[in-house]
Amino acid sequence: MKVALLAGGFGTRLSEETSVRPKPMVEVGGRPIIWHIMKFYAHYGLRDFVVLGGYKVEYIRDYFLNYRANESDFTIDLKSGGVEWASMVNEDWRVTVVDTGINSMTGGRLRRARHLLGDETFCLTYGDGVSNVDIPALIETHRAAKAWCTLTAVSQPGRYGALRLSEDNNLVQGFREKGASDGGLINGGFFVCEPEMIDLIDDDQTVLEAEPMDRLIERGKLASYAHTGFWQSMDSLRDRHVLEELWAKGAPWKVWG
Predict the structure, then answer these.
(1) Spatial distance between the Cα atoms of 132 and 115, rounded to a whole number of angstroms
(2) What angle do CA 241, 5, 257 make, to 5 degrees?
(3) Are 184 and 235 spatial neighbours (Cβ–Cβ below 8 Å)?
(4) What is the spatial distance between Cα 22 and Cα 61, in angstroms, rounded to a whole number?
(5) Of the residues 60, 78, 176, 208, which has the fewest C-beta atoms closer than 10 A?
(6) Which residue has better confidence, 41 or 236?
(7) In this predicted model, what pLDDT tens digit does every residue of 36-72 receive, in sequence order?
(8) pLDDT digits (tens, 9 = 90+) for 97-106
């Protein structure tokens, strides 16, 4: 199963960092946050990644192109250019980096990568949020619901739009705006998707969380998985500091050894 990572936005609320690099490359504990997300998925055996880049995508390309050299000891013959690797990297990942356009919206980015995701179920998440969600249980919930898309519902007060769920089968019935004191469930990413949902995206300017989600709701094909554990996005410099402090204490999303 492939994992698509949305990694092309401007990250304007974190401009202190994103003026020089894309938000997924902002470091937590000395590693880009996208590395933490990929390490998390790899723990569950999902190691085939499609990175949907856009803004400053060259930083993401350079990171993975030079990953082995930066993570390994080696001997290089400067005359011939031959390299002998004295150590190997631990990550047995396959990483595809795609430039989905600097101005594409989230839906447009996914639509541009349709040919790379194939005709099978895939995972999708944002390149700026970490969690300890139970991925196998999430996938099982998705399959049981026979949905085209299952999102992870998490509790987070404040600035996000809350979900309205059915009482019997956890289908998503709608979204609504919320106030700062509203503790309702929100879309925390960590989606499981079927290829059919990509066909509901019109063009590059389509926001994944808008028309495509509404169309899924109309068809009864948008399900949710309730996650009551840790979840945190990195939308601001304060969020980054919170994640740094958590990393220093052991990091709740660090499920790998």
Answers:
(1) 29
(2) 60
(3) no
(4) 11
(5) 78
(6) 41
(7) 999 999 999 999 999 999 999 999 999 999 999 999 9
(8) 999 999 999 9
Pair of tokens at residue 245: 């402090």
Please determine, for residue 179, whether its predicted confidence score (pLDDT) is greater than 80.
Answer: no
Show the domains of the chain with their CATH numbers.
Answer: 2-70+92-248 (3.90.550.10)
Whether this model's pTM surpasses 0.70:
yes
Tokens of residue 120, six digits: 């099978």
Find, among 40, 230, 4, the residue nearest to 125 by Cα. Answer: 4
Q: Which SS3 state, helix, strand or coil, does residue 74 take?
A: strand
